[in-house]
Automatic annotation (TrEMBL):
GO cellular component terms listed in the entry, alphabetical order: adherens junction; catenin complex; cytoplasm
Protein known as: Cadherin domain-containing protein
Native source species: Champsocephalus esox
Pfam families: CADH_Y-type_LIR, Cadherin
Annotated ranges, domain Cadherin: 64-146, 147-256, 257-379, 380-487, 491-594
Keywords: Calcium, Cell adhesion, Cell membrane, Cytoplasm, Glycoprotein, Membrane, Metal-binding, Repeat, Signal, Transmembrane, Transmembrane helix
GO molecular function: beta-catenin binding; cadherin binding; calcium ion binding
Region feature (Disordered): 725-759
Amino acid sequence: MRTCSLLLLVAFIALAESFHGRHHMRDKRELLVRAKRRWVLSTIEIQEEDPGPFPKEISKMFNDQTGDEEHNYQITGVGVTEEPQGVFKIDATTGTVYALKSIDRETRSSYHIKFDVLSTRTGQPIDEQLAFNIDVKDINDNAPTFFPPIMDVKVNENLEEGGTIVNLKAEDNDQMNTDNSKFTFSLVSQIPNEPKIELKQMDKVGFLTLKGCFDYDKVKKYDVIVQAKDHGEPSQSSQAVITLNIIDTNNHAPTFRQKKYQGEVLEMITKNDILRIAVDDKDTPNTAGWRAKYIFMKGNEERNYQIDTDPVTNEGILSVIKGKDFEKRHIVYLLVEVENEEPLTLCKDNKLVGASEHPPRDIVNITMKVINVNDAPVYEKDTFHVYLKEEEPPGKEFFTPTIKDLDSNVSNIRHVLLEDQGKWMTIDAKTGTITSAKMMDRESEFVDENNVYKIVIGAIDDGEPPATGSCTVLIYLKDVNDNKPMLATNGAILCGNKDKKVMVTAMDDDAPPFGGPFAFSLVDDDKTVTQRWKLDPSYGNQAGLISRRPLPYDNYSVPLLIQDQQGEITSETMAVMVCDCGEGVVCKPKDPVTSSLGKAGIGLFFLGLLLFLLLLFVLACQCKAKEMVMVQDEGNQTLIKYNQEGGGSADQAEPTLLLTPTRMVAVNNGHKTNTIKTFEISNDVVKDTDFYNSQVVDMINVTSLSSQLQRNTFTNSGSARINVTSLSSQPQRNTFTSSGPARSNTWNVNRTNTGQGRSSMYQRSVSMCSNQHIADHIDRRLYMMYGNLLDQTGYPPKEYAYEGLGSKSPSLDKLSLSDQGENMIFLDDLGPKFKTLAGICQHTIQEKNIKL
């Protein structure tokens, strides 16, 4: 029973688990359905250079979140809305994606695209945006390319076997690490075929190498074609053309044209180009492998000879650079070998051989014969040293040389001075003894910095031809105290704004102990100097000059005494400029004169301008026409003094001047009416022309007889007109001008007297108080002009030199007079100007004690 119960319990448990399991699986399936992808699309991959036709479908999009809602598909990104545009598009309704043209993978290998699904009704996204790349599948559409495809290379002839001739580089633009971009180099052709050129490759770089050796004499140029071929399907390839130009090197040894040469040379002489040695070389001329280099193997141990290479002919040029003594050796045997500047390289059995296998260098024998000549005298030494003291008196013998001559008698040798810059020496032509001719100065320009004076002497023998030997005599001059100390510079700048001390430097041309250090001191004679200056330090090569107090900026002269170590004293004057140096060490320049104006200057300018305008205004007011009342009986204001007045004729009858009245003329000035008589005057020696101008309208013309006709005009503001004509033998002109109101007329008189060789002019004004005075005025004027001549008509006219204008002092005629007739009351008060004049005159009269 228990067993049945247990089995029944197990069956119920198993049934319950089975039911629970089925329920769990159903829930799981429901969960998987809800987690299902919302976007469904095909794999997008396109092949480059697809021939089409276009547009071509490449994929289709689907989204399960749209449900029954109307929607549109949209794509953006590279190839659609970004450059390069116009590559892809999508059908908004079906979600089909199209390619619009073929694509070059080498231009762009991938396109990043974004997909969206939008509600047609709202335009809003229904689901999240999907983004992925569209990959372009590569095809083998590019061949490997050489850089550069054509090469022109220079290669040395002596290139060793296995050496690199040239490097080759190529590139393939197809997808990397694929068969489309992998390629292999191969040698297509080589012209000519020998020596063999091999091709080696390392990744994308190739190397042309040599197997064997080049021979420039046989082949000078090689043409090589190399190919690069990729591994794609179908395979692509390209070629490069390499031209190898062989450069000749030294593979031919130079050889002498002759095996023996002979030459001659005079003993003890030097000479260039005494012998030329010719060689042959088959290498290219003017190259390092062609130019010869000559080497002495034997016979030039004393280095008497030198051999150079002619750069044009490649010949060896033998020269004597040191004379050979005939007495020692008269024949010299030289052994010379030749090689090139560039080492020799030889090729045997198509391989370069080492230097040990090279043939020996070519050798030539040269025999040089030394010809005996007259040997020059030889001094015991080439240089002699003599020690003397400077400033010694001339006439001192201080050197006699020792000389020998193998070919001549020493007693016949003549001695000369070859170099004596200071002309300080003489030499005995027989013995060679050198004697001083002048005092020698160690400080002279002819003595070097080591106190040495150099002379060169020569010895000339009597051989054929005469030979000359020479030697040098160095004279060391010992110093004496023959120079006084002095200032190195006589001026200094003292920056008064920041210093009070300047350094004074002294110098002495003598050497120690006759020079410095020096003792400095101020001259005690001038107390002003010691009050201003002091010395600290006062001993040494320099002394410090210190101002005792601040000094005004100026130039100062400071007398100094300078004493050397031997007590030699000299007086020097130091010029010290005390100035403002600012921040520097030299005097500041004076401020330049500026043309700019400050505020004060501008104010003064305008003030001056205002005063000038005010002055102009005052002058304008003073120049305004005024009524001037003048004294009726005026006088000439100028007294002209003549050098000679001449004499009259005593035996002639006294002439008379007839004044014949002709008619009466009424003149009205607005207040009074007067009459003027007109007169006829007999012939006279003077001609006056008077012009009277008045502001009234009346015109008065007065006429008189004379030897010449001249019109005088009186002008007034009246309507009456009277003409007056006078005749005279001397031209003379008077002008009367009337101005002012009718109540007080003014006659302005301008008179010009002209004679032969002279002229004079005066001007005056007459105030006519009333019309009745006109006649009186004319009478007075006529009397003044002609009255003094009535008794002297027999006098001939006298010419005087022109003496210029009369006095320019103001005339008293300008004093105004009233219309009160003969009333003299106005004289009681003539105004402040007249009183000032009267006071001056009264004072002068009192001083001179003049009695009126």
